[in-house]
Amino acid sequence: MDGTGEHSLPEPGSQDSRVGDDIEIVVNVGGVRQVLYGDLLSRYPETRLAELIHCLAGGYDTIFSLCDDYDPGKREFYFDRDPDAFKCVIEVYYFGEVHMKKGICPICFKNEMDFWKVDLKFLDDCCKSHLSEKREELEEIARRVQLILDDLGVDTAEGRWRRCQKCVWKFLEKPESSCPARVVAVLSFLLILVSSVVMCMGTIPELQVLDAEGNRVEHPTLENVETACIGWFTLEYLLRLFSSPNKLHFALSFMNIVDVLAILPFYVSLTLTHLGARMMELTNVQQAVQALRIMRIARIFKLARHSSGLQTLTYALKRSFKELGLLLMYLAVGIFVFSALGYTMEQSHPETLFKSIPQSFWWAIITMTTVGYGDIYPKTTLGKLNAAISFLCGVIAIALPIHPIINNFVRYYNKQRVLETAARHELELMELNSGTAGEGKAGGSRGDLDHLPPPEPAGKEGPSWSSRLKLSHSDTFIPLLTEEKHHRTRLQSCK
Question: From 34's CA, which of 60, 150, 364, 425 has a CA 20 to 30 Å away?
Fold first, then answer.
């Protein structure tokens, strides 16, 4: 159909009274020819396609404000837009909503919807979530690029103290910025390991010494190593705090709170040891010091600062709270049910180990988690059958949420790698564009488009959408076809 039938468009500038719902609008979007009808487009008069109905009355200025080109002979509007996205956009006229096909960039599809003046409220919820995810990824890439640019750029208008502050922050927070920064990061990592090993070795009786009162205490050498490590951690934290651009955000960050918890017990213990004896009994001071020494295990979490894998694991667990909650709920229900059954079934045995239901909770926990210490076990036949069912249910309950948690871990890890690669590519493109701009070269010629492959054939739609709705029909125009096969038939388009 060529669009020049009985209800075709009038001449530009004419005041034809037949312009209305029965008019045919012929559009050519990226080589795909589509015939639409006025009664269909009038459902959403604020869209660009609906404005084509009355644009001819305004002349060629109005026409070219809506489309890229217009053929008066065929009375056909040309748009240099994505035909695949257009097929999705026109669904709003038929169904009142838009679905985005797989393989289309969500950001580009949003731009297409903005061009055709179709509001995003018509986009389906599943597609909106995909669009929001891609938008967040672009914002993350932009943030990383900006951070890299801030590190590379030097503002000469800033004072000496501000420049020194930036250098210290970059030196301590970005190991990849220079070789000395990488050496400091490795040194900090090794000191964390050394302090953790020293904390463990200090509890070995053979390595402990007796003090003046006969109590076992850590070896003085281990204490000196511990003091040196704490001194390094303290210096590192203070330098990072003073050089931080936002000190409040720095102090409230989770990893920085871990750093404080790893450092603070040493100074509190030191204070209690030298000053606490004057205010309280020596026994209470020693108990308080021992309790604070246990808090030194928090320094092992400092390794997460230097390990992207641990950070990814933390994020995966954070995103898997729902699955972890389901796991705990399954286990809680199973523990209560099987402990009550085990207590009831074991009451008939004279040497039963199930004294009460709360005491049976311990047996149910170690059975459902397949640990089985053997301190509590059933002795009756029904009790053993209950135990077999309980550990089978425990295996199933634990295995069910594991797959989503692993998927979250893999998805986030791969996403971080993609974002890092995208940020590097963005910087390379910026550097390339700045270089070509300096040399006065254009980005590319239009002739390069001749080497692109032809567009994919547009498939024909099936039966009519409804008995009262007119069909729109389309042909695919492929420039590389020969003259004999310049237009495809309906059967070829369907194939």
Answer: 60
| pTM (predicted TM-score) | 0.53
pLDDT given at position 491: 30
pLDDT per residue over 99-140, tens digit each? Answer: 888 888 888 888 899 999 998 888 888 888 878 877 887 787
The reported pLDDT for the residue numbered 280 is: 54
CA dist list (Å): 350 to 47, 201, 277, 306: 84, 47, 55, 58
The pLDDT confidence band at residue 196, using thresholds 50, 70 and 90, is confident
- Taking a C-beta distance cutoff of 8 angstroms, is the pair 208, 218 a contact? yes
Given a contact cutoff of 8 angstroms between Cβ atoms, the answer to whether 440 and 421 are in contact is: no
pLDDT averaged over every residue in the chain: 76
Q: What distance in Å separates the CA atoms of residue 352 and residue 378, rounded to the nearest whole number?
A: 8
